[in-house]
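Customer escalation, tier 2.

The customer says the design service returned an amino acid string that "doesn't look like it belongs to this structure." They asked us to rerun it and document both sides in this ticket. The original structure tokens are below, unchanged.
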């Protein structure tokens, strides 16, 4: 005989599975909005650092990511990260960013870390307003790899249609992104 607590837990797990399926589609739809010919920095890998050990606090990914580099200038990367588990958030967060890496453009995969958006946003997210592009300061532990970055955040569930993702990306591109600054183009 099913228990009420067990049924509620099953409903929650089913909801998480549906969320993961929707996020998977969001990651692949992201490719359609990148404004230049691009290549995936990490192929089809969307997360890392998951444990397979029997002793674990959890097995669900803390977040997922997708990074696309510009084929003509591989140092220029547009990225998306969805944060599921982080003590400072009340609900899943969508991060979109444009980053310019300092390393040799042929080595962007080694310069880029799938968690770069995450570590630029946390713990520095306060007082970032949701949906507003922010040119962020690069923390010293990332400054050797990242020249500049502009990020935008939104609650994951505020993105109900693919057009919502497109609107956020347009807002990001409309911001004064340091990577697109003509005065800094020769750096």
């Amino acid at each position: 005989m099913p228990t009420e607590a067990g049924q509620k837990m099953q409903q929650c797990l089913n909801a998480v599975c549906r969320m993961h399926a929707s996020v998977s589609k969001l990651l692949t739809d992201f490719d359609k909005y990148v404004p230049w010919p691009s290549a995936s920095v990490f192929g089809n890998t969307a997360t890392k650092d998951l444990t397979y050990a029997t002793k674990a606090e959890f097995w669900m990914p803390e977040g997922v990511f997708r990074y696309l580099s510009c084929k003509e200038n591989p140092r220029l990367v547009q990225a998306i990260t969805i944060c599921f588990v982080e003590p400072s958030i009340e609900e899943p967060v969508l991060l979109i960013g444009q980053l310019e890496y300092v390393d040799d453009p042929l080595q962007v995969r080694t310069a880029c870390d799938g968690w770069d958006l995450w570590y630029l946003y946390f713990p520095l997210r306060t007082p970032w307003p949701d949906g507003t592009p922010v040119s962020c300061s690069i923390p010293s532990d990332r400054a050797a790899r990242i020249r500049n970055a502009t990020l935008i955040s939104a609650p994951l569930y505020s993105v109900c249609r693919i057009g919502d993702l497109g609107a956020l990306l347009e807002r990001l591109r409309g911001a004064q992104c340091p990577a697109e600054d003509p005065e800094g183009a020769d750096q």
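Tier 2 assessment: The sequence is consistent with the input. The beta strands are 38-40, 63-70, 76-83, 93-101, 134-136, 146-155. The two ends are 68 Å apart (CA to CA). Sent an explanation to the customer and offered a walkthrough call.
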